[in-house]
Fold each of these.
Amino acid sequence: MKTLISLLIRFVPRKYLQAVSGIGLRVVGVFYKGHSVECPICQHSYRKFLPYGRINPRPNALCPSCLSLERHRLIWLYLKEQTNFFTQKLRVLHIAPEPGFIKRFEKIHGDGYITADIESPLAKVKMDIHQIPFGENEFDVVLCNHVLEHVKDDIQAMREIRRVLKPGGWSILQVPFFSPVPDVTFEDSSVTNPREREKIFGQDDHVRLFGKDYASRIERSGLRAEENRFAAMQPDKFGLQKEEVLYIGKKVQ
């Protein structure tokens, strides 16, 4: 199973995986039934989650039902327990929306929930994050999960996120980190070979390797950065990476 999943996510484009992977994984999930772990998003329980990863698949990572990974379950729990996301109708821009979130978030926020992506067939709006096609101060929340490692200019993208946020609005700005995490983010636009990118940046469609300076990069965009360690307080049954930090970017004015 580890090898199959690794090959699929390495060599099949994301837009195709999103379109067809759900049915197959739900069938696989039948063989993982149990009560050791629980997905807080879809509320299905399993003896363990599926492995997931391109080169060295992480054990206990992927929910067969809603396709959530550790970071998605963390975001869901954070939104539910530490924000008003589930209790008020908000204007939400969701960049590169994950399949397991879309219908659930639409149910809460209705027409105020906008999905956007440069290529995903799941998104309502086709959008380049460097030039977000919305006016200033339009959204209460922007969700941007594992996107900024793919784009040409992450700081410009975050400036655009800040522009469309309302004063007092906030964004979730998760990016991947690979051990050992460098002190300073590394990027080199001359690296274009997919296998070389995978070696240097951790994935063949990544263009930078984020470092310990990530919070300061958020600040350079004009957002106020918050490093939230909510994950460390959560029970083991949700299958989170306890060391994961949630990066929140807030528009203070």
Amino acid sequence: MTDEIREFRDGIFALRTRRFGTVAEIMIEALYNFTKSHNQFHDRYDEVGRQRIEIKFSTVMKANKAVINRHNVIDQCKKANLGNRALNSNDRYDYDFDCNIQQVKRLEFDVLYYGLFFADRIAIFKMRSDEILSCLGYSDKQHKGNKGEGQFHLNRNSIDYHMQHHFVQWLTYEELYHLLN
């Protein structure tokens, strides 16, 4: 990986919430030629298939078992960097990780593109909204009172299910960089 690509990847990992989500949305739009959404309830639109597209991604970080306390707070902060915690895709069975695909409002979209930004490449998955209820570990109870909104987790125990049933493709950071450039 060149310095330019590494800086690009590290920047993606440094983004939080909405800004990170926007990168994932632009990536999926560019990969599959989707257009802007028709309303605020889904992320993109597939003009060819006439489908509402939702996009949810997460960065993959090794789990940290140490609880932060007064005695280790400085050490834990120093160890929390990308170099220590970002997980390579080939190590997905060797380390614990937990990526929460959340705020899934299955009635508001037809197809969910979701995935994992590993340290070395990106895994892209796809699931139809009518498959969500049978997704391994799906819970339609995310927040009290939020009807029709759920979540599921990708982790060391569930990754095989997603790879076998919903995997679409791997994308390297070099490929993403050139796609967006």
Amino acid sequence: MVRVKRGTASHKRRKNTLKQTKGYRWSRKSKYIAAKQALMKSWSHAYRDRKNLKRAKRSLWQIQIAAACKESGLSYNKFIAGLKKFNIEIDRKILADLAKNNPAIFSKILEKTK
């Protein structure tokens, strides 16, 4: 059986890891073990923070919708309950955008839910 030298594969793997850590500080950009640990940590933070970003955006949309509802004298939870009652399936992102940029359309939606 022919001997397989694995140097090229491991060299390529290390090179790719160091390429991904370009711009990191101190030894994390130049030393393989430190770079690998930094990458694993950064990937886990990126995964976690993608979820946190969605959470933060949704709460921002809720605040914007609540502020628009308050102007017409309706609370946020009654507005959402009215949407569900009349089967109006518009998500919070669109509702917040309507409240901000098209108040006339948002007020028509408000009148339907009352």
